[in-house]
Amino acid sequence: MDYNSAVLTTCSRLLLLCFIGLKAAEPSEDGGGWSSNSDLRLEDEGLCNIDVLDGSSLSHQQFIERYAYSRPVILRGLTDNTRFRSSCSRSTLLEDYGARRVRLSTANTYSYKKVDVPLQEYVDVFLRPQAADALGSETLYFFGDNNFTEWQSLFEQYKSPPYVLPHTSGAYSFGIAGPGTGVPFHWHGPGYSEVIYGRKRWFLYPPDKEPHFHPNRTTLSWLRETYPQLPEDEAPLECTIRPGEVLYFPDRWWHATLNLDTSVFISTFLG
Questions:
Q1: Is the pLDDT at 28 greater than 80, yes or no?
Q2: CA-closest candidate to residue 179, choices 151, 213, 235, 219
Q3: What global pTM score does this model have?
Q4: Rounded distance, CA 83 to CA 158, Å?
Q5: What are the start-end ranges of the H helices in the chain?
Q6: CA 231 to CA 31: how far, in whole Å?
């Protein structure tokens, strides 16, 4: 299947011809068994116009002053989640949790529909590439609606980002999704998102700059149809995060996500 779409970006966006495509996944570093040479993946990682820093170069106080209430940032090397990563490999996760039920949501802004299935069934039946013309209401997505009692043994292995906001505590949301899937634009409180396997592309706007989107159109269709037409002053902040990288997003920032590969990820919502 070919979703190639030539796009001429503005001068300030590097005058590059970008395209969106699907191709056979190339062999890469350990993918945890979630991708193989027969899987599909999205090629285009896009721009990265968000600050990317080594966690050791940013103190907690600097994080509060520069980013916590004002803009997103991507941090590398914040924590060592080697153990959690191992527990999230396909074989280990299905062995330990395959019989447990997960709640799927429709991949639109409001996620009205909920469906409960065993994790094994989700991986075998629902975990597949997103069709370019699918609507959000037609796409079931596993992210967020976790039973914390049943999944507690997994979450206990995760080391969350150490930078917290005053008077907040963290709540985890765990997910697994196929290439081309994602959540369209929405907003909520501040938080972090870390990729365990795969790559996830992010698009963000500040609270006072609501993006143009249809709540039932997927991020993939927005990227193909709306993104190429955006004037320079309406371009989003964006970046693709990879395993071991953590994105922080402030309170009420609009954001949409697009999984470029079969991805395993976890967010820490601060509330």
A1: no
A2: 219
A3: 0.86
A4: 8
A5: 60-63, 82-87, 90-97, 119-121, 152-155, 219-225
A6: 37
